[in-house]
Inverse folding.
């Protein structure tokens, strides 16, 4: 399976720098979670990797293939969005089968793949259900199954649980990680939610104002935050700005 290399990726919108020379790698079968506040560049990063817009600088390599100039539909990249993006005129089976039909697979193979994925996401027997009859959690499971069905080289997930309530999000966090691991999928997962990131990730990349603040396993970020922003963002304590001074051989902290 391929790995992903991002080298010096930069994207500007006028005078605003959305991504500033971002460099990192996602290993084969790794789940990398991109965590950061709104406006940090998370969704822009996914759009550049998917080919939905071009970078101003930098390179994107998938399995050592430079994706410059490769159109989105030829990048072997799967996408899953917060808004589900299911086809309302197709039932559950046809939604999941859509990418497989684009690959011109034999009908028995399509049927077996769809049924296997429905079983994995806990929706066996839902093949003929119409999309509008599904709950939010069921729609998200169908969207995940549809994204995985064509076996993309890497799956990009943009705030996939953002529209769900807290109880359902906590349930689906574990299910998504288990399914990605069962499918041996390489994934780049965007969220602003710390608990979601820690539950899903093998490693976490913290992005702030278009720059990487820190990359590491979830435990390492909590135990050894690399910057004051990381410490504050992860709620690791209360911080006051001030000066440490020696006054009459006594150390003072002045804020």
């Amino acid at each position: 399976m391929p790995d992903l290399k991002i080298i010096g990726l930069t994207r500007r919108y006028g005078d605003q720098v959305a991504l500033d020379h971002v460099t990192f790698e996602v290993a084969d079968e790794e789940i990398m979670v991109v965590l950061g506040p709104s406006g940090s560049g998370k969704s822009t990063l996914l759009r550049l990797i998917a080919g939905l817009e071009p970078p101003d600088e930098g390179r994107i390599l998938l399995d050592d293939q430079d994706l410059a100039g490769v159109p989105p539909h030829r990048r072997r990249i799967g996408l899953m969005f917060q808004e589900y993006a299911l086809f309302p005129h197709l039932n559950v089976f046809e939604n999941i089968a859509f990418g497989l039909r684009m690959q011109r697979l034999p009908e028995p193979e399509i049927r077996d793949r769809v049924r296997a994925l429905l079983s994995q996401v806990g929706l066996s027997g839902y093949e003929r259900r119409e999309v509008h009859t599904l709950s939010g959690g069921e729609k998200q499971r169908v969207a995940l199954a549809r994204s995985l069905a064509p076996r993309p080289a890497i799956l990009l997930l943009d705030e996939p649980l953002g529209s769900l309530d807290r109880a359902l999000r906590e349930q689906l966090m574990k299910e998504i990680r288990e399914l990605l691991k069962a499918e041996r999928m390489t994934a780049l997962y965007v969220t602003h939610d710390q608990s979601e990131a820690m539950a899903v990730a093998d490693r976490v990349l913290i992005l702030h104002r278009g720059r990487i603040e820190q990359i590491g396993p979830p435990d390492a970020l909590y135990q050894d935050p690399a910057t004051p922003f990381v410490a504050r963002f992860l709620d690791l304590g209360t911080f006051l700005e001030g000066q440490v001074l020696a006054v009459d051989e006594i150390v003072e902290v002045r804020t």
The helical segments are 42-50, 92-102, 107-120, 136-148, 166-182, 194-200, 218-223, 228-233. The mean pLDDT is 92.
